[in-house]
Amino acid sequence: MRFAASATTRSVRRIHRTATALLLAGVVLACTAAAAPTATAQPAASAPARVVTETATPPVTGAIGHLYTTSTWARSVLLKPTAAEECSASGCVQRFVGGDIAWSPRTGARVVVNGPVRTSWWDADGPAGFHGYPVTDTTSGLRNGGTKQVFERGAITHSPATGAQRTGGSIHLAWGRSGFESGYLGYPASGERTGLRDGGVYQVFERGFVVWSPASGAHPSMGAIRERWRLSGMENGELGYPTTDEYRGLRSGGSAQHYQWGTIVWSPGTGAKALAGAIRGYWNATGGQNGALGYPVSEEYRQASFAYQQFQGGTVYWSAATGAHSTTHGDIHNRYVSLGGAAGQLGLPLTDKLPRAGGLVQQFVNGWLVWGPSTGTRIVGHPTYKVWSINPGEFGWPLKDSWTDARGAHVAFQKLETIWNETTQELYSAEPVDAATVVFLGDSQLDLDSWGEQGARAAGYPRQVVRSIGGLGYVSGSPAVGGGSATDAMLADRILLPQGNPGLVVVNLGGNDARIGATDAAILSQANRLWDELRRKYPRSTILVNGVLSRYDAGHAQRRWVDGLVTREAAVRGWPRISMAGTATIAGANGNYLDDVHLTQAGHNKVAPLYASALRYVLGK
């Protein structure tokens, strides 16, 4: 705001003009006298004597006088006073040949030297105007011949290239943070200019601007970052006003500046790029320029339903449905790009790249990319991946991309091929089955060439699919299937049985339930759940329940008990069943055990004919 000059100030101006005129007149008279001849010129006899009256030098007193008399520098630049001290309610000013001394109780006595700074100050009504009293003496000898003086409400700075310019308030402070005229902004090149959005103000400097608004404060804007901001529409664009100064010293010589609705980041290798919204938030959360992504190398690209931005280390994708995720450089990223990226068959990423079982995986809208160290990156569908991820070691790495035929969606793993059937919502193994195929689900009693397998071959089932898992039971769990029981593993597809209609499905469990002392109620509950699941998977196959192979001695009493429990329950349901209680003793295999419960191969060979006979009888063969 511009303050009106007081009566005292106008009086000081008149005194200044009068004193200056008198001083100039004295100089002219002195010069005229010096030019007159002295050797022969004589005054006329009749001319009256000439009287010269000297004008007294105005006194210099008080605080102004103290500064003048004690400072050699002040006397050298000011020379002598040209007017008496003039005071107002706020302070005093005294004029000298070389400038002024201004004093107030708040600022003390300060020298204002003749020149552009002093002229600008008086043009703004001196101490009664915008700047108030000086708080420093005039400083000269600045960069490129500049001069500056700080006043109560800002500063006036002059350079030959920019003229005298005023700076004040928050803009002056922001300029100060940049190093004043010796900093990267250089000298002010204009006064403050108003009229920006939301009451904003800016001021031009040699190498940039300082921009202020009530909401964001004052911040310098310069260089490549300012140019990128200009391209965005400056304060009227998508970024709004700057909310920080440019901060430097980032990795690889980079710098950045925050704005109301985004950030501009610059590095020598990537230039200045804008970051905003969820992509900026994700980039910050993953380490910014110090993280895996590094600096942005493109602007944000916006499609109909998603946006993406490229970085040194990969690409960040965002949509309202999926949030922000990245694909970072490597085999998965390269494969994703080759498949068409976000517009391709996989769609947008749903996770970042994740470590898994010594490899890497990443989820997308329409499937997973799974990378194995020796197999490369392959596409795996969601349902298949869910089962694979629980126990990758049971499957190995995928050898080729998932493919679909009339049976469902296939994935060929190192150890097993799987099929997901969308109609039944089931995951199967891809082993071929027919009426001559038997599928065994059991525990370690099926190890070696077991009595069960031999008996089934003898009963007319030469094609065999065997799932024998040590420690497994209706209730008893095994680490091989994630720690759960056979029932839990079947329901969660952790045990995969083949798709199709095998001629016979045999359940051979219960021995481990006897070992752990599972209750009758728990065994029966879990057995019925398992049998129901098998019936759902194989509605047209014969499902047969084996009891628990045992001897007739007291050490196998609990095994015989569980055998009777499950075969009686199968009978109640009308299912085919074969009791194996005491069969080892009947077969003469009591001496053919590896330990207390597992037969040697010789033991299996002895039991097999009895089982084959019972199997043929139960199946009506």
Strand content: 25-35%
CATH topology assignment of the largest domain: Rossmann fold
Supply Rg. Answer: 49 Å
Number of domains: 4
Name of the CATH first level of the largest domain: Alpha Beta
Largest sheet: 5 strands, parallel
The helix fraction, in percent, is 25-40%
Within CATH, the superfamily of the largest domain carries the name SGNH hydrolase
Low-confidence parts: 1-53
CATH architecture of the largest domain: 3-Layer(aba) Sandwich
Q: How many DSSP H or I helices?
A: 16
Helix-strand category: alpha+beta
Shape assignment: rod-shaped
Mean pLDDT: 91
Strand order of the largest sheet: 30-29-31-32-33
Task: Explain what you see.
The protein contains 16 helices and 33 strands. With 621 residues, it is α+β, with helices and mostly antiparallel strands. The chain has a five-stranded parallel beta sheet with strand order 30-29-31-32-33, sandwiched between helices. The chain has a four-stranded antiparallel beta sheet with strand order 1-2-3-4, sandwiched between helices. A hairpin with a 3-residue loop joins strand 3 and strand 4. The longest helix is centred in the N-terminal third of the chain and has 29 residues. The N terminus is likely disordered.
